[in-house]
């Protein structure tokens, strides 16, 4: 037990800050659930970038999601300053007792000070000066000799103040909402997929999201097409998804062009909430290290995840261990990670070999290995 826990009985309102991309924000969801479970009286708010807010809105443990719009900087100095000032006034008006800053973003130090919170938590960051160190009351250490999943790293902020989550409390929650569920049901019905058959081995579908905003995380389109062809040959219906981004849409078109029988495509048609609703209905998700993979895992859908330069130990599809299991290795796995075992350099964490945007460790993954992982989970 820590010697300086935060007395949660004295905390009325808390603000949790996660200024990162979509997947990072989603993997912070257990922090809200755990804090609420251990201190139900606390009103908990979030602060995230506006484009990532859908990862946390409707979360049952969150009172309000505050946002920072990355587009503010395009408004000009005066308009940006006004937007920032309005946000600060809103946050100060909440009178937070506790601020938990989950990243190294410098903004967290300013907010911890300016909100007047009595307790403030942040990562221990080497090289940060007096301003950072004096802005927080508690610092979270990071492992120096081992890799740790991002969910656990986020929850370490709570452990540091004396809140210890049980294994089952570490679940990632994402709520699509009734509107998203209704639209996805209608889209699937238009393609002859009934809402009640998502887990039916004969009539359900496999969701394939081949793209990522980072090209160096993607498997070649030709290999993805070969895999989809194999699924079609086995009698599986395949639904493709992708962001509206032009590069992602182009990848979908390249895959479709190599299929004798095109897959159902919802590429560019779905919001993040709708993608979550779609993933929840799929019997399997296939994709690369990306936010959609984390979304599918959060919805309880078994995942086959392809990893290249990024680390699967830190970013693999998350599955909370059972209450009676001391670690996730004792829990039956609902996911399979496929990565190269012939590239000792992975995970390198860089944007393709030599910064080339092309990752040989991914390009070299054989279709047969991915197909075998699919067979393990689907049984076909």
UniProtKB/TrEMBL annotation:
<dbReference type="GO" id="GO:0009244">
    <property type="term" value="P:lipopolysaccharide core region biosynthetic process"/>
</dbReference>
<dbReference type="Pfam" id="PF01075">
    <property type="entry name" value="Glyco_transf_9"/>
</dbReference>
<feature type="compositionally biased region" description="Low complexity">
    <location>
        <begin position="320"/>
        <end position="330"/>
    </location>
</feature>
<feature type="region of interest" description="Disordered">
    <location>
        <begin position="315"/>
        <end position="342"/>
    </location>
</feature>
<dbReference type="InterPro" id="IPR011916">
    <property type="entry name" value="LipoPS_heptosylTferase-III"/>
</dbReference>
<dbReference type="InterPro" id="IPR002201">
    <property type="entry name" value="Glyco_trans_9"/>
</dbReference>
<keyword id="KW-0328">Glycosyltransferase</keyword>
<protein>
    <submittedName>
        <fullName>Lipopolysaccharide heptosyltransferase III</fullName>
    </submittedName>
</protein>
<dbReference type="InterPro" id="IPR051199">
    <property type="entry name" value="LPS_LOS_Heptosyltrfase"/>
</dbReference>
<keyword id="KW-0808">Transferase</keyword>
<dbReference type="GO" id="GO:0005829">
    <property type="term" value="C:cytosol"/>
</dbReference>
<dbReference type="GO" id="GO:0008713">
    <property type="term" value="F:ADP-heptose-lipopolysaccharide heptosyltransferase activity"/>
</dbReference>
């Amino acid at each position: 037990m820590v010697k300086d826990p935060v007395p949660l009985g004295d905390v009325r309102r808390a603000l949790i800050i996660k200024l990162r991309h979509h997947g990072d924000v989603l993997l912070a969801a257990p922090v809200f659930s755990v804090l609420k479970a251990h201190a139900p009286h606390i009103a908990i708010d979030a602060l995230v970038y506006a484009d990532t807010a859908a990862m946390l809105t409707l979360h049952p443990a969150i009172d309000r999601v505050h946002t920072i719009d990355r587009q503010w900087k395009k408004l000009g100095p005066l308009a940006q300053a006004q937007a920032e000032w309005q946000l600060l006034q809103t946050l100060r008006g909440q009178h937070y007792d506790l601020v938990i800053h989950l990243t190294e973003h410098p903004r967290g130090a300013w907010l911890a000070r300016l909100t007047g919170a009595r307790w403030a938590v942040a990562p221990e960051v080497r090289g940060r000066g007096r301003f950072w160190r004096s802005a927080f009351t508690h610092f979270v250490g990071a492992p120096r000799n081992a890799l740790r999943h991002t969910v656990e790293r986020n929850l370490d902020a709570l452990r540091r103040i004396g809140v210890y989550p049980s294994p089952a409390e570490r679940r990632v929650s994402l709520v699509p909402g009734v509107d998203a569920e209704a639209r996805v049901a209608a889209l699937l019905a238009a393609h002859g997929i009934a809402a009640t058959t998502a887990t039916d081995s004969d009539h359900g579908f496999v969701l394939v999201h081949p793209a990522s905003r980072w090209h160096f995380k993607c498997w070649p389109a030709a290999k993805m097409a070969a895999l989809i062809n194999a699924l079609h040959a086995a009698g599986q219906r395949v639904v493709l998804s992708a962001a509206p981004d032009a590069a992602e849409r182009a990848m979908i078109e390249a895959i479709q062009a190599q299929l004798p029988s095109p897959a159902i495509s919802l590429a560019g048609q779905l919001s993040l909430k709708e993608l979550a609703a779609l993933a929840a209905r799929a019997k399997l998700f296939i994709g690369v290290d990306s936010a959609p993979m984390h979304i599918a895992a959060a919805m309880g859908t078994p995942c086959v995840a392809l990893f290249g330069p990024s680390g699967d130990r830190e970013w693999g599809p998350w599955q909370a261990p059972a209450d009676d299991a001391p670690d996730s290795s004792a829990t039956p796995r609902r996911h399979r990670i496929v990565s190269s075992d012939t590239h000792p350099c992975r995970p390198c964490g860089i944007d393709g070999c030599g910064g080339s945007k092309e990752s040989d460790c991914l390009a070299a993954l054989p279709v047969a290995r991915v197909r075998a992982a699919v067979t393990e989970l689907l049984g076909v």
